[in-house]
């Protein structure tokens, strides 16, 4: 019996189905960019930081960079869920380098699942003195859970299954897929 992390990556494609095509994802990213652009114009901020939550947020952040017609600086952080015995702790391995004081910070991530990660990153940005904090996720999982926050902008709602592609991984693989798939 092969452990899941040792499966060849092609196996995950064979054991999954497309839930959003590349075309549907691209259309969603266009909508996210337009909504963010509008929100930031309303805030009339000239100090914008696009903050990518690594690694999953990389795909959406890269796509947004090409679409946001605003002066923005880019930074990133890494804060991962650690499913230890004491519950669901967040372990930070990289904090942003830019000074977030008085900035309009746009946090970009791939998925809002239980919402623990995004809530922690929002809390961090406020504590660091951000003036406005906006959140954008490519996907939100429709899992019926009471979440600690809602994202300001959501691209697509995905079913309550394990999804991957467009930044999201399955055992480290397939973040680069331009479509979103769900394990069967
Ligand atoms: O809403 P939550 O239940 O908190 O889960 C969402 C988070 O989980 C994933 O990150 P992960 O820690 O797996 O790291 P990754 O970005 O490197 O995949 C994903 O990228 C989100 O950041
Ligand atoms: O369904 C998921 N897929 C990939 N990464 C995730 N992180 C939380 N939920 C998921």
From TrEMBL:
The keyword Transferase applies. It catalyses: GMP + diphosphate = guanine + 5-phospho-alpha-D-ribose 1-diphosphate; IMP + diphosphate = hypoxanthine + 5-phospho-alpha-D-ribose 1-diphosphate. GO terms for molecular function: glycosyltransferase activity. Its EC number is 2.4.2.8. Keywords: Glycosyltransferase, Transferase. Residues 24-165 form the Phosphoribosyltransferase domain. This is Hypoxanthine-guanine phosphoribosyltransferase. It comes from Methylophilus glucosoxydans.
């Amino acid at each position: 019996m092969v452990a899941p992390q040792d499966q060849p990556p092609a196996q995950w494609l064979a054991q999954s189905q497309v839930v959003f095509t590349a075309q549907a994802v691209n259309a969603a990213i266009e909508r996210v960019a337009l909504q963010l652009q509008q929100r930031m114009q309303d805030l009339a901020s000239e100090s914008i930081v696009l903050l990518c939550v690594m690694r999953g947020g990389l795909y959406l952040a890269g796509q947004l960079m090409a679409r946001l017609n605003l002066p923005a600086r880019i930074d990133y952080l890494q804060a991962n869920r650690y499913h230890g015995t004491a519950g669901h702790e967040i372990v930070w391995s990289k904090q942003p380098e830019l000074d977030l004081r008085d900035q309009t910070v746009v946090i970009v991530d791939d998925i809002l699942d239980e919402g623990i990660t995004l809530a922690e990153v929002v809390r961090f940005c406020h504590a660091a003195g951000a003036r406005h904090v906006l959140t954008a996720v490519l996907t939100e999982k429709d899992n019926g859970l009471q979440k600690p926050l809602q994202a300001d902008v959501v691209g697509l709602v995905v079913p309550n299954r394990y999804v991957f592609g467009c930044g999201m991984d399955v055992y480290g693989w397939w973040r680069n897929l331009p479509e979103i798939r769900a394990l069967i």
